Structures are given as C-alpha cells and as structure tokens.
Amino acid sequence: MSDPGSSGEGGAMAGQETEADAEPPRGELPPSCREHLVEQEVMEPPPDAKQPCLGEGEQVHPALSDMCTETTGLCEGQVVSAVSDQVLSCPEDGGQRAAETEKGGWCQNGGEDEDMTREGEGGGEDEDMTREGEGRGDLVDSGPDDSVCQSQSLGLDFGLKPQLLTGSWAEYTHSPENYLKGCKWAPDGTCILSNSADNVLRVYNLPPELYSSSWDVLPEMSPVLRMTEGDTIYDYCWFPQMSSLDPDTCFIASSSRDNPVHIWDAFYGDLRATFRPYNHLDELTAAHSVCFSPDGSRLYCGFDKAVRVFHTARPGRDCEERPTVVKKQGQSGIISCMAFSPSQAVYACGSYSRSVGLYSCDDGSLLALMPQRHHGGVTHLLFSPDGLRLYTGSRKDPEILCWDLRDPGQVLFSLPRTVRTNQRIYFDLDPSGRYLISGDTDGVMSVWDTLTAPPDGNEVVLQPLLQFQAHRDCTNGISVHPYMPLVASCSGQRHFPSPADDSSSDEEGPMSSDDIIEDNAVMLWWAGPQAPPSKEAQGGQNQPGNT
C-alpha cells in the first residue's frame, strides 16, 4: 500500500513482540508531564507529514479573518484552545517560527505555545489537584463563567446548510466494504484521525489551503500516516495535551481485539509503547474503550465490569483495577465508552448493559448510577463544557439523552435521531456547548441548539435546528474543530445483500447487491458565517459521486 508518509509496521504483531517486560519500542512513553518523563534520544527530522506554518508573505482567507475579529472577538493570530480553555497566541517572531519548522513541528495559525503543552509548567497539574480537592462528595458545585463559553465561540452559523470543502473517498475503495467507523480532530486542530473497517487508523492534515486565500480549489485529502492494527479496532483517542509544536506529545492510543493497548506515534506512524492488561487467568485481554485523563497522566481502559487505570509514563502491565460491580451492586456489563468532566474530578462510564455511571477520579468509587432509559447499549457519551450536563447515546436507540448532573438521574431533554443498527454513532458539541451535531443511519446530519431547551427542567423532545443529507450512507462520525468553524464527518456501514426477488423460481435466488448504495468517505464541512466558493463553482470535481 503506497503511503506519502510513514506507516506503522507490524501492527498488533509488533505490540505482541514487546510482551516481555523489556523496554517498549523507542523507550518509555514521554507524556507532557515533565516530572514523569524519561529522557529520549534526539529524533531525526520528521517526514513531510506535518506542514510548516504560514510564511510572512501568505495571507489568511477573509472568512477566517472575519471569524476571528467579529465573531470570536479574538485578535489576529489567536484561537481558543480546546485543551487549556485559554486564549493562546502563536509566536510572532518569524525566526522562531522557522526554528520550530526545522524541528519538525507545525505552528498552526494561532496554535498553542509549546510550553503550555507541558503539564509540569504553567500550572496544569496544580489545577487538576485543585479540582480534585473541591467538593469531593458533590458532583457539580458550579460551572465556569458564561464569558468562558462565549469566548469559545467558533463563529458557527447553522442558518444555512454547511458547505462541503473536500474529503477523502478514494482511500477506502481498495478494500471491499471498507466503511468508516468514526473520525476525531486532534486537540490542537492540525489533523484528523479516522478509523475504518480495514483496521487502519489514518491521519489527515488540515488542508493547508485553509490557512491561505486559495480556497477556489481544494484537492481530495490523502492520509499522511497509516497505523495498522491486527484486528477489529474497538476504540481510539488522542493524547489530550497533544501539540504539533512538541512531537513528544503527538501520540494516539488504540485498542483492538486480542491485542494490548497500543500507543502510536502521530508524527511518524510507528508503535511507541504498549499497555498490557491481563485477566484473572493471566491471559492478555483487550480493552473495549480507552480514554486519557484530562492532564494525560493516566490512561483509563474499559473492560467487563471493571476499569483499569495505567500510568501513561509507565507502559507495561502494572495498573490499578477499579471494579464497577461490588457485592453485586453497581454498573454491570462491558464498559463501552468513557468521558471526563471538564469541571469536576468525575468521569462517566457507559455500558453495553444500557447503564451510565458517574465515578470519582480519586478512587473510582461510584457516585451515581443513572436509571436505564436507553433501549440499547450505550455507545457514546459527552460532557458539556461547563460540566453541568451529560449527553448519552446508544445503539438501536432513537434519541440522545441530556442528563442534569445537578440532579443526577434527571433527564433535561432528548434529541431525536435515527439509529437502526448496533453501530457506534458519534456526536459532538462545539466548544461553547451550544450546538450538538450528530449523524444517523440514514446519512442525515442534524444540528440542535441546546440553548432553546426550556429552562424549567421539564423533559421535552428538542427538535433539530438544521437537518441535511450529508452522506448517501450511514453518517457515523462527527467531530467539531476545536477553534475553526469546521465539521468533519465520516460515513459507511456493513451491508448484507438480500436474495433477489424472483417469483418465477421456487429456488432461492442469487444474492444481489445492485440496490446497495455505499458511501465510504471522510468529509470536511465549512459551517462559518462566510462560506468559501461552492462546489458548483468548482465544477463538482471533488465530490465522491463524480470520481
């Protein structure tokens, strides 16, 4: 398979070769917490997977400029970081930018300062310790100021249908039924991570044309990295302190069937380390869900009736086991998804037994168990930016539920969507928490304005603000860019051909797939107030139906 960038070799086999207690590939994993870091040798210059920042002679497109100055209220060269929730500025000195480029980093337009990504500096760890010390017994005392949420506005405008910019579809035609299974923006917004049925994680750079004024033609995106797992990928996530300015923080965690948890280098695509969970028979067992703690110091993995916690700086088999069922009481089933509260030392776990539980980050004790309202196993959950609400969705379930964490167990409102299969259908919130976006099994993308929900707390069905046909097949992945009005989506699902209708024959007819419509693609949508030139102006060359 041709690859413009580097690719992970060996996949799961490489991970299993390191099952001994020897050092993991390329030494121990260096997270952003410097007090836990192990000194690494100087790495060779990276390939062209990461692009340099804007030069002095390049211009920013007017849509981006207006979005920064009018909508978000930020000056030129600033963005809102989804990781630190602060307004950070990009280095202004051209020589310093050139130096960062030579190091292999990507100083994106308005990206994070390198020092801010290291948790030992800038008060990152102290802030988390403060969170854990506040209101240990209370789930939510108070949310952040409204001004924080207002400052995180991306300039999203859903008064009209978002404009399709570009995407990737030819990449998924080499294998049969190579449908997508989700996509996630990197925390610094420089690239997109996708998962597909061929057990390959692909990394796409944000198109460099979006940083310049040449928006009239956007070519199809091609992956710069491919990381191959040995079997079906259960879950994957970015390191939350990831910044392209610091290659040491650019890594991805993934879990797959019959394999340990792998840590992939998002700069080179090779395997960096493994976390190896074992069961009571001392057999390697696979994690069904993975999630880093907000500071990145710990990796939480979901199993049947248990959560195991690894220290990010210590790959291997040592971990803390936190059972979710104690004396036949608690949350049963496989822990299928996890999320951390942005305002409290609390994490939520969803289970295939249709339950949702809230746990303390300190000792893993169960704080609250939500009533079983979902019709199927919970496949995705997400906290609001203020930590006062929890959104949950499940398989074969026609609604997303919004839980009020000030009164755990109370549903504020539900969001209707069509989910007819067991597939995991992701949804996402913009950084302000106002817009929730989700796809469904019919290929429709829906946008809800959560501010229109009645404040009296009575449970209502909140109707979508906008609905449109985003894909011709199941839209299973949605991810909102952390600081630009961009939405990434992906599509596809497994199809089962039905016997051909032949009433003239008593015998079973041949299997027919003529009526099956497949749309396996990653798409990039502009949802800002000023859309770039439409696809009609480009002659429709970049649309998958015309390739």
Task: Describe the model.
- The chain is mainly beta and 547 residues long.
- Helices cover 8% and strands 31% of the residues.
- It is built from 5 helices and 36 strands.
- It is globular, with a radius of gyration of 23 Å.
- The two termini are 20 Å apart.
Poorly predicted segments: 1-152, 501-512, 531-547
Q: Roughly how much helix do the residues carry, as a percent range?
A: under 10%
Name the beta content range: 25-35%
What structural category do the secondary elements indicate?
mainly beta
Straight-line N-to-C gap = 20 Å
The main pleated sheet reads as: 5 strands, mixed
In DSSP terms (H or I, runs of 4 or more residues), the helix count works out at: 5
**Average predicted confidence as pLDDT:** 75
Report the C-alpha radius of gyration, rounded: 23 Å
Spatial shape: globular
Sequence of strands across the biggest β-sheet:
1-8-7-6-5
**DSSP E strands, number:** 36
In short:
The protein is built from five helices and 36 strands.
Task: List descriptors.
547 residues, mainly beta, five-stranded mixed beta sheet, 5 helices, 36 strands, 8% helix, disordered N terminus
Itemize the secondary structure elements and their pairings.
Blueprint: E1 7-8, H1 11-17, H2 62-71, E2 78-80, E3 87-89, H3 94-102, H4 124-133, H5 146-151, E4 163-168, E5 180-185, E6 191-196, E7 200-205, E8 225-228, E9 233-238, E10 251-256, E11 261-265, E12 271-275, E13 289-292, E14 298-303, E15 306-311, E16 320-323, E17 325-326, E18 329-330, E19 335-340, E20 346-351, E21 356-360, E22 366-369, E23 378-383, E24 389-394, E25 399-404, E26 410-416, E27 427-429, E28 435-438, E29 444-449, E30 460-461, E31 466-469, E32 475-480, E33 486-491, E34 498-499, E35 511-512, E36 522-526
